[in-house]
Model the fold of this input.
Amino acid sequence: MKRNLYLSALIATAVYSATFFLGVLVPQSAALGGVVTRAAPRFLDTWLHNVVSLAPLWLGALSFGALTMLWLAFQGLAHGFAVGHAGLPVALALAKIWRHGLLEIASILLAATFGLSPGVALFLENKVVWPKLTWLLGMLAWLSLLGLAAYLEGRGL
Done:
């Protein structure tokens, strides 16, 4: 069980990192539109947005990780593109979002780990493993990470 989660976490980290850097490198002319700016949202709005937008990472477990892989790649590309085309040098853009962004990336990787774990277990052990208690604790940790990230983002940190 632990081995499946470790391998799932490694796969999730590799996919997100690769697509993030690919998104940073995409030329500006490939953009579909400009960067949208808006007033700082309230905590609950940000938290609910993040929960809804990252739920497919968890739901990908029902497809044995296929949906998780697609959604993870999309998230990596979108975040990399936003950082790479924020109108700032990449290092400065990352410095402006690192406090809440680090927590959001951790929550993305946590959700992707659990979304990929049934597929990894099926591939490695030829059986489906649904770790109920581990998933419940993972879900609570995920919601907490997103809550703290939403709080920091709402405070402009």
Residues 2-21+40-154 form one domain. The chain has a mean pLDDT of 84. The chain has one domain: 2-21+40-154. The helical segments are 2-25, 43-59, 66-84, 90-125, 132-154.
